[in-house]
Amino acid sequence: MVTTHNLGFPRIGAKRELKFGLERYWKGESSRDELEALGVELRARHWTNQQALDLVPVGDFAFYDQVLDMSFTLGNLPERVQGFHGDTLDNYFRVARGRSAQSAEEHAGCCGGVAAGEMTKWFDTNYHYIVPEFTANTQFNLDTSRLSEQLREARTLGVNAKPVIVGPLTYLWLGKAKDESDKLALLPRLMPVYRALLSHFKALGVEWVQIDEPILVTELEPAWREAFKTAYEGFEQRGVKLLLVTYFGELKDNLDLACTLPVDGLHIDAINARDELALAAHKLPAQSVLSVGAINGRNIWKTDLGATLDWLEPLARQLGERLWIAPSCSLLHVPVDLASEEKLDAGIRSWLAFALQKLDELNVLATALNAGRDAVAVELAANAAAIAARRQSPRVNNPAVKAAMARIDAKLGNRQSAYAERATKQAALLRLPAFPTTTIGSFPQTAGIRQARSHYKSGALDYAAYQSAMRAEIEHSVREQEALGLDVLVHGEAERNDMVEYFGEQLDGYAFSQFGWVQSYGSRCVKPPILFGDISRPRAMTVEWITYAQSLTNKPMKGMLTGPVTILNWSFVRDDQPRSMSCYQLALAIREEVLDLEKAGVRVIQIDEAALREGLPLRRAQWAEYLRWAVESFRITANGVADETQIHTHMCYSEFNDIIASIAGMDADVITIETSRSDMELLDAFDHFKYPNEIGPGVYDIHSPNIPTEAHIVQLMQKAAERIPAGRLWVNPDCGLKTRQWAEVIPALTNMVAAAKALRSQAH
Ligand code: GLN
Ligand code: ZN
What we know:
The protein is 43% helix and 12% strand. With 764 residues, it is an alpha/beta fold. α1 (17-27) runs antiparallel to α2 (32-49). Pathway: Amino-acid biosynthesis; L-methionine biosynthesis via de novo pathway; L-methionine from L-homocysteine (MetE route): step 1/1.
């Protein structure tokens, strides 16, 4: 008999109950008891949802983040929150978000104002975890309370609990040594705490423990590989069985290591590493379990159950009882339940599976393996029909898009002339001063704007009324920008709810869920649009707004688009073609928009690639390939314009050292980046590379309510000018201003424009 299990379940709740519960609690609108009760209720519901499985994960729930939970279990709290008033959960939220609930902050006067823990993306997903902090002096201290309590809850419900923990090497790897000390040197101090935790599980009668070590799918230094051996050998005689869990990629040269560590089973992500299953089955010791992640835990498509059984059945015959099956990774990365989607087109809906549907699929696979395919003939037939319908659907396959894809050649991504020549022509046309000023696109999204958009969506507002509301907003932001004296203006993006959704909604090949929320961090969720088919653009998407904005001013108006790589990286994408293919299709569609803007007389066009860096594969060896098609997609999008048209791009980060050649390869005339917090040191990458085109290093930290002073901006720009020739510098904020208030934006931009003027007069 095959064993079924799950690695983790989305904790946010099908209706985002956890989000709303947390936010009520933080605001002081609900009590601690209510929050705790919500946790109990969600855990119970989710375990009940998973009841049909042989083993159910416990410890995957977190009020904020599972890595932060692990830090608390290990007693690794940053020094700055130690010695605080309040209890563990107060401290937990202090690390998570800089403050606990309102009611717990009575002591704000004596000990308030903690810096929140740094957040980083969890491997190559869009989930963000709180980075564990280390110093050479870090001590660990076991706190089993959370896991004990949750195991007790699970037992009362009668589920077969499998505690889930982050393994010691992955835990160290995810963290940051604040004093630049060697994190690995902490392993000897960490090991006794893990050993005590395993003994604790043993005392509680736990049989299996899931120990996540996803770093085994990355390129590990020899010292780290060695440390794996030391650590896991240290777990011998533990009295519980360990399932070593990997996901998100292939183990490659870590496969041998993973198969020989003294554990009781190994989980491999068969969506990414199916080719390694046979080798693992061969290499694992005769008693070891091989857990196969047969269902994609990160995407929302139905599994092709027949095709999966074709390769699982021989493995089941070979391994017998030793075969376990599960989703490829925690289901944290998918929405909870497709059943709540009432508005989704029925055809597309029949192709999808969210977390609950994925668990059903897992059970069908298990029954087929245990009792033969006949035992689930009806389910398999329905699945096969849905898979076939999707494959053949004319909504997925658009011959015109396929033909356009076939016509892509190198020329499509090339500008007519080199940058220097373009720059001369653009300067003649745009007549911008030195240190030109601009903003990144959005202006404050006021309550009025949101209301107009949502009324239009619900039908309460007709198009004419909606259009005039948006036009009024555009006019307001244009007048403000003229009054501020900015040089290149924007229309303000009032009509956009989200920089990806806005375009997805207007492209053919995209669908939208109502409740397809996925946790991004803490209480924050995103609802990624679903890219299901060949992408095409039935009509212009932004031209009407930009041309209206341009009609209001003699200053150049910047057209504002989201680039193909960012749209791709922030969507659920097709699994029936390579990501690069979908990206090229997006590139062709956005290219048409670029050309339409140009035709309509727009002289400056910005194509945001906020998420280009996020798409980098986990293994360095695969970076070049990703960057090749990502850069090519941008070039196809942007570079069909005349020399006189100025192309901008924007990126929401500033680490460019390792990808600077690719950034230069995009050949945008101007790139704006986020630099204000780094004191311009991050421009070094551009300096060393001798980045040839224009750069706007952000001088206004839009994530903070603080207003930058003129002097501070001047100082930042002077530092920038030490690295980049002043003639190629722009002056702009770090990112869009949609989350700020006009009352903050006006003084900040006033100072920014004044700083640019000061710089110009200094230059003379
Ligand atoms: N143009 C977008 C804006 O200004 C860019 C946002 C982003 O980079 N995340 O909001
Ligand atoms: Zn940005």
